Sequence to fold (929 residues):
Amino acid sequence: MNPPRTSEPGRYHAFISYSHHGDKTFAPAFQQRLEAFARHGREMRALRVFRDDANMSANPDLWGGIQDALASSDWLILFASPDAAESPWVGKEIKWWLENRSPERILIGVTSGHLAWDVGTGDFHADSTAVHQALRGALRAEPRWIDLRGVRALPQLDLHDPRVQEALAEFSAPLRGVDKDEVIGEHHRRRQRERRRARNVIVLLSVLLLIAVGAGVVAFVQGQLAAEQARTASARLLASTAVSEAPVNATRAALLAAEGYRLNPDSQTRSALFQVLNGNPDLVRQRTLAAPVTSLVASASGVVYAGTTDGRLIRWDPSSNATTETRLGESPITDIATDDDGSVVAADDGRGAVLWRPGTEPKKLDHPTPGPVAVSPDGATVVVLTDPFSDVQRLDVFEASTGQRTTQVESDHAWDKVGFPDPHTIALVSEAGSWQRLRLPDLQVIHRQDEGVFPRTWGEPRATSEDGSFTGYVGYGSGDVISTIDPPDTATGFEFGSGFSPAALAIRGDGKKVAASGGGRLFLADTIATPEGGASLELTGTGDAEQLAFIGESNRLVSARGTTLSLWDPDQLSRMRLDAGNLTVPDTPRSSKQTRMAVSPDGRRALIVGGRGDIVLHDLRGGPEASVTVTPPPAFPDPVRGSSTFFPDWIPDGTPVLIENLGSALYAVRGNHTELLVEGQGAYDVAARLTANGERLTSVSEHGSMGNLRLSDKLYLDKVYGNVVQEYDPEEVRVAAISPGGRYAAWITPDEDWSGQLTVADSEQRRTVTVPGQADSVDFAGDRLLVGRPDGSLEVRDLPGTQLMRTIPGDTEFAIPMAWVPGTPFVGRLRNDGTVVVVDIDTGATLGELDVPVGSTFANDRWYATALVGVGETGELIAASPNSTVARWAINDRALLDLACRFAGRDLDASEWREVVGIDPPGDLRCHR
Fold:
């Protein structure tokens, strides 16, 4: 069943000849799947097929390279279409093959148009539109040809689709020299082998369940266990598939992850849900249309228009996710243009052009062979060019309000793109990099570049900005953008990295950004006037994008792949990040004194004390008075340390309070000023908080002791002492934490830097426990103690810390801040690179990472000076980094499921469930349920 092999390393089983204009997306996709179809054993590919874009490097002797590839190929595969019938390159390739090889070694796949054999004449029928002239009269008998028109119209070439399998087998069988049924059989056998391992668990457990039915009480228990195991296996299969699909199909990945977690909420399914939602940070939303997209444009206002294979013209408003549509006919729409606000749109399908204002009937524009179209920025004028492959080139200008032609002029050049740099100027651009600018209304040429400025490299994607101001190309990982008004030496470069093979390109209206897609990857890059170009960013969540369009001169981008539209915004907050209204955090001095933050019990407000003593009260939901600057209480002078600082906290009735670190004086915050509640006394404190019920104030002194103040009678209770150090040895204890109930306190007496001995005090038992080993951070999570070790690991211990429950490895050095989100098993740990690692302390699993916003600061150790707080009421994690903005993340299970459903915007289909799990789904697959 293996394909025939040759000892020559440069040989190919087949050469694909096709039109770059008509099949630039279909040809590479078909080649990739043909090579992979029915692979045997551990082969990387079953066949080696030549296609110019995939196999040719930049070569000045283009035709010489093509001839070498033809000479090294056993078969010629011709993708026949009206575009291929007009292609001079396709004609040259056919002519070479007929002169040097047998016509019986030609396989024809009809991708569009019409092909028929006339038995009477022994030639192709005269009305066959997909036949190149080089084939007419050249064949002795009807050639072998396969109808690919239905396959080409599919959203994607899915190897599981019987139609795709049938088409691939039609080509693969003769290339291998075997029967078609044998090829299909090998494909199915390989597919079964690949899926057998995943499904064996479910099948085995199902068999166990059946066996257990008739075995009485014991069997019933075993059956329950088997059902539980089957549910677990299905849930984990959904979860693992979601993670693997997230880079190429973010919408379906979110739905699969949500269903997996609902089916069996454990560490693996929870981690998958977290990863899918925290990934694809630049993807805003996706929308599935009824047919594959063939053309795309976006207005400066953000309205998107898409043309489809079946003649639909669809308006999509991403802000509301609403669509409106009309029809041009039954043919694919080839070009679309719109004005700045998206209220006027022009489109053509090669047979006719229309002008459409959504909400009204489209108006036909009088043009016999329409090609590229353009609408002026103000929506007053529409331009229609003749198809570039027509014999006579013409430019027609129409009045948008009436649809009537106002001007018509013939051209001596074939243009591939038309745009409006401004309401009174028309830009005409060719793929070779020549252009003209015409003045309205007389259409006089005011600027021109007659010679093409791009290298004549075969197959490189070319593009022009929507307004025609910039044109460019991309080769294998890099390219250039050139202004159509400045001289060609003002080119700016861009770089995507080696190994990237682009198939589509878009240029932003100001020429400062480009987007390119190919090989399952999508990039956004800056253009800079250097050969290396600017920085690039990979956008994940959709795989190959076949159409690309920028939204005005913003960083937002729209892409289309099959039937899916995707909106991207690299400037948006990550999907899990909640809006905090750009609330600012006070800076800290160079000595990196820690920022302190306390959040109200309802999770709505945050009281923040900066390292310099600045105090702000923020409403985390925004509003007209979202931020209040609080005047601090009079500073208590200290001869050794200077002025006092404060610990923020809240009393149960929702009043924010400040606890002074010198003697634990307590102040209520009233508006922008404070009111003294309890006078201070005692030692210098490194930590202080109110108990959850508001009855006591608990503190840890710098000398290693735990104190409790009963607020009802202002009585200080007996202290619990650890290893007491000498008085007036300032800041001997640097890191401390207090449990929410106030019973336990923990502090680290450092040997050097931050690490040292950890002591845990129990105020009820009036004793202390020394936790073995070095510690550099500590906190509490309900009835558990969290101990950060110098090697980055996190220990979960019981209280008071005598028993080790779990060790969670750490991959790098962590800063001091960590926070538990009450009501969840989640703990956030801040690393020294500014990312918060979220771990599940019940299982030890790492869920993912969150980026803390960065701002300029005086702090030497920004991340040691950052505050991190978990809020049980809202299930949020909140960070406050010096001189930056407050960051909020929703990480509880309910919030994660809601995020998944809102992002997906649809429900999982039963067929999608079966494809992954292999069994029938539950009755209700609604995402919001």
